[in-house]
Amino acid sequence: MKRIFFIIIGALLLWGCEKTIEFDGEMTKPYIVMISQPEADSVWMVDLSYSRFLLLSQEIKTIDDATVTMEVNGSIVSGSAQSLGDGLYNTHIVPQSGDTLTLRARVGDEEVVAGCRMPFSPTITDFHAEYDTSYYENWDGSSTYAECTPRYHFKLHDKAGEKNYYRIRMFFKDDDCEDCEIENLYFSIEDPLIYDEDVVVVILNEGENYFYGHSLMFSDERIDGTTHNIAIDNISQSFLTRSNNTVIIEVSALSRELYLYLSSLEAAENGDDLGFFSEPVQIICNVKGGIGVLGGMSTTTLTDKL
Amino acid sequence: MKKICIIVLMCLFGTALQAQGSVWGTVTDAQTGETLIGATVFDTLSKKGTSTNQQGRYTLTLNGDTAVLRVSFVGCQTQYFAISTHGNQRLDVQLNGSTTLAEVKIVGQRVEHVESSQASQVEIPVEMIRNVPVLFGETDVVKVVQLLPGVQNGGEGTSGMYVRGGGPDENLFLLDGVPMYNVNHLGGFFSAFNSDAVKNITLYKGSFPAHFGSRLSSVLDIATNNGNDKEFHGGLNVGLISAKCYFEGPIVKEKTTFSISARRTYFDLLLQPVLAIAMASLDEDEKVNAGYYFYDLNAKVTHKFNDRSRLYGSFYMGDDAVYAKYRFGYGYNEQDNMKLRYNWGNIVGCLRWNYELSPKLFMNVTGAYTRYRNDLSLTEESKWYDGNDISLFSAGMTFNSGIHDISGRVDFDYAPDPDHAVKFGGQYMFHIFTPETSSMKVEEHDSWDEIDTNFVLGQSKVFAHEVMAFIEDDWRINDRFKVNGGLNLTGFGVQGKFYPSVQPRLSGRVLIADNLSAKVGYAYMTQYLHLLSNSNISLPTDLWVPVTANIKPMTSQQVAAGFFYNLKNIVNLSVEGYYKYMNNLLEYKDGASFFGSSTDWENKVCMGRGWSYGVEFLAQKNFGKLTGWIGYTWSHTDRLFDREGQMLNNGKVFPAKYDRRHDISIVATYKFSERFDASATWVFSTGNAATLALQEFDPGTGGDYYNYIVPYVESRNNFRMPNYHRMDLSLNWHKNLKHGKRTLSLSIYNVYNRQNPYLVYESYDYSYNNASLKQLSIFPILPSLSYSWRF
Asked: What is the rounded CA–CA span in Å between residue A207 and residue A199?
């Protein structure tokens, strides 16, 4: 009897502790999403779409009938952008470093607008590589093969007295394969001045306190006005056993708007690891009247042909 | 001009030139000998009065030849004393606790409500706390305080307190004058204060007197029982989830007393049948045991050396504990043992000496120790036998954090003349913060390896010094005007940096009529501690950290004004408006989490500003068959984080997460007879603000991020959960027994089974390709029974 009594009490407690019920959320109006990340010396493109209410599982709707107007240094550039379909707009405009850009898109009665300044390309010097070559026997002992692990060094000159934002990305290209696409490369950088990871994230990722990924963004907060040595290590890829490959390192200067936008996207993704215990992330946009970003970048490309 | 100055000086000091005499003493309960806090001593001839302090002591300096003193206290029979005011004289008063004249009982309350110079202050009768129905029938001091206007709870069933737009870490909880850090049990569903041990509760929401400091939003001053100095009494209470008991009595009659109360939950016992069912499906060699409990213990010893000197020693200890054990064996060959133990809680110890230096000067010397700890240990041990050797693997992990405070305080009450009651003193507090320390130990011994690894990760201790000096004067300018002005000077030294703060406090009262007054108050407050927490739930992983060289102290300035009215000696009415501006507030950056780690916490927070304004209405009836109150608050609380590098919400104003427009609480107790009474509460509040992404979009990053579609949060706390409302009911049957009195109570929490939202989240059903918003409700209708016996 006593046992039954305890079971009933226990079951009642468990039943009472949690109950999930349907909730009626109010549908909110979609925003115009305008994404444009012009790169210096490249054609300026714009992507337009609508956001969707989170409870709708329909496809994201692109906008192909917008009137897109672009201004460079305060002057409207003649000839509106051409729709390429799928929400993409192409122009003949090639922004330069230091240009001030304004972008407007009108869809019916709605207009969204954003502005940014194109950053100057980062100044990089002393780029050089070191190679560690290891030799291994094939599994059947018939021959040996070499594995080459490069380590890259360069100096980044940060301009004093202004806020600068950077991004480093690495790619790999197989020069023997014309049809092959450029692939992302994963790499590591151990440098607390440009990357200082949260211990929790380190534990969750079972990693160490250094960056490992294919895209590292950082601000000049701790290297302002200095010439900073950067070392790239632990490059992943099986291509290293092959020849006629090119490693491409892109060091980009990002406008503040683009840096904040991309950083918040990154934070949103990392925040998912901690779910309930992390603050929700607000994507930082600079599009007035809508969502998205107009943020420029200028890139210095370093290549190493293996 | 000279004449005007002379006239002003004569007005100010004229009374001091008249014949003066002082009367002083202690007001106690005639039955228990317990000192009464807040009892009113009032001269009906000169219309001057005062109230007793935390030690039940008063001093009244009087002019004229004679005085007729009226001594009153809530629930006690008022007594009158005709005395001569020539010279100094001691008058200790013992008030009887029963009377049939209801209107006599309320005199003291009316006088205090209307005449006090203090705005934004509420006294909560302990009897009312014992009657209010609450969760699982467990009487809870903090949950009753949450029913007052201007005070909001943190969420369904929790003890988190949000006062006038402030955060949960901005409340100073004083237990016998000593600060307590973790005031919650079980994730905040219960407070750490056992109502059996409590004698008096006063809440300050603004216009803080100068002798309080170190928190921005409120002070909850809780005094515990000294113990009956005449005879032994006790009680026992058995409820659905916990049992508690208390004992009090004289050690040496009318000289030394003790009071002790203890409480423990038995969730762990209730869990046993569930575990028994779960274990039935396990292998024979598998064994599981797990549980949770909390307990607290209050003890106090009081010794009266003589009429002028008393010593108090009080002690509190409370802990929450989670434990789990798992044992698994493969016959004789292998055995695995895993153990988890998680403890968190407080220890508060205090030694206080009261001494009357003279009839006009009273001294308090206090030494105190507070400890908050949060300890986790996890061990695993494996043994296996391969026929020849025994191999052993063991791994252990610990996580510790906490605070130790050692403090000393001296304060004085001085009544130089009939119109002034001065308090002054100083305090020094030494803080030792252990933000967090983790250690790991791994041992492996077998025929191949001998591994022995130890490492410690975490921050070292942080030492901080906090000093405070204060002076305040409760000055009765004339029959109509009374002010309480003071200055609180504090300083906090940490990491080689010293933060000084000068905090002026001022409150005043104008008596418009005998039963109507207007009050106004201003307070500047500074706070040097922060609570790192990521959710509305009070988790043991929440960490207290001090300000640093980079994180400045939080400050607030608050003005409050209101009218206080006594309606026909039956109901106290008040309406109060306030505006509070807060600076250097902390909010967590987007994506930041402190779960299990405070490392580098300064980089995870932003500093900004906030403000809150509102109007509070309270109608309170403490006497008669029907007692209770109706409280209503209209308020608005915003945050603005727009500093460079500290920006949140794109630098725009956003509502604080505890911003609630309307808050209503109705509390009523009706005494049908000596044998039966019933209580009911109804609460309503605007839904909590939460951050919810209502739109999603394609970020156009060309696959740089895993999430192809990204949720878009328009602004922080952009979403309102549905309104919250709930009714609770309590029915109490009393019976006098041969020895004492028993009470059988039936409590029903959430009578009409309202499914109030605890949190809202997006849920996706992949089978039907369908997304939905869901809310989690945690407490449906919950009846509970409790039995108590007092003797």
From this structure: 10
User: What residue in B sits closest to A56 (Cα-Cα)?
Assistant: B771
Question: How far does B534 lie from chain A, in Å, by closest CA?
Answer: 6
CB pairs under 8 A between A and B: 184
> Which residue in A18, A55, A196 is closest to B771 by CB distance?
A55
Measured CA to CA, the distance from residue B204 to residue B116 in angstroms comes to 13
Strands B571-588 and B554-567: antiparallel
Q: Rounded distance, CA B346 to CA B480, Å?
A: 45
Among A172, A143, A302, residue whose Cα is nearest residue A230? A302
- For chain A, how big is the Rg over CA atoms in Å? 25
- The CA distance from B543 to B533, in Å, is 7
Residues 154-173 of B with CB under 8 A from A: none
How many degrees, rounded to 5, is the angle at CA B533 between CA B546 and CA B348?
60
Total residue count of chain B as it appears in this document: 791
Quick one: A130 and A228 in the same domain?
yes
Indicate which CATH number applies to the domain containing A101.
Answer: 2.60.40
| 10-residue stretch averages of pLDDT, chain B, 791 residues long | 43 42 83 80 80 81 80 80 79 70 42 73 78 72 86 72 88 89 76 82 90 91 87 89 89 90 87 78 77 90 90 92 83 79 90 90 93 86 77 81 91 87 94 79 71 67 92 89 93 92 94 90 93 59 79 93 88 93 87 60 84 94 86 94 85 88 92 91 88 85 60 86 88 89 89 81 67 74 87 87
Q: Which of B438, B590, B701 to mutate to test the interface with A (most CBs of A within 10 A)?
A: B590
Give the residues across from B482 on adjacent strands. B476, B509
State the Cα–Cα distance between residues B197 and B194, nearest whole angstrom: 6
Neighbours of B220 (CB within 10 A): 26
Cα–Cα distance for residue pair B508/A103, rounded to 1 Å: 59
Is residue A228 classed exposed, middle or buried when 0-12, 13-18 and 19+ CB atoms within 10 A define those classes?
A: middle
Look up the CATH number of the domain holding residue B782. 2.40.170.20
Q: Which two tokens stand for residue B261?
A: 């109360």
Tokens found for residue B628: 């209770």
What is the tally of structural domains in chain B? 2
End-to-end Cα separation, chain A, in angstroms: 80
Cβ-Cβ contacts under 8 Å, B438 against chain A: none
Contact B724, B757 (CB under 8 A): yes
Q: Which of A66, A94, A117 is the last residue of a domain?
A: A117
Do B467 and B385 share a structural domain? yes
Is there a single domain that holds both residue A111 and residue A142? no
Do B788 and B237 meet the contact criterion of CB atoms below 8 Å apart?
yes
Q: Is the Cβ pair B771, A54 closer than 8 Å?
A: yes
Residue numbers of the domain that contains A150? 123-254
Which CATH number covers residue B98? Answer: 2.60.40.1120
- Whether B515 is in a domain gets the answer yes
Give the mutation candidate from B186, B712, B784 for the A interface (greatest A CB count, under 10 A). B712
Across the beta sheet with A45-50, the strand order is A82-85, A88-90, A45-50, A32-36, A291-294
Q: How many residues does chain A have?
A: 306
Contact A198 B775 (CB under 8 A): no
Residues in A 47-66 with any Cβ partner in B closer than 8 A: 47, 49, 51-57, 60
| Residue B331 burial by Cβ neighbours in a 10 Å radius (0-12, 13-18, 19+) | exposed
CB interface of B with A, residues 730-759, below 8 Å = 755, 757
Whether residue A172 sits in one domain with residue A108: no
Residue B605: which region, alpha, beta or left (left: phi > 0; alpha: psi -120 to 50)? beta
ipTM: 0.84
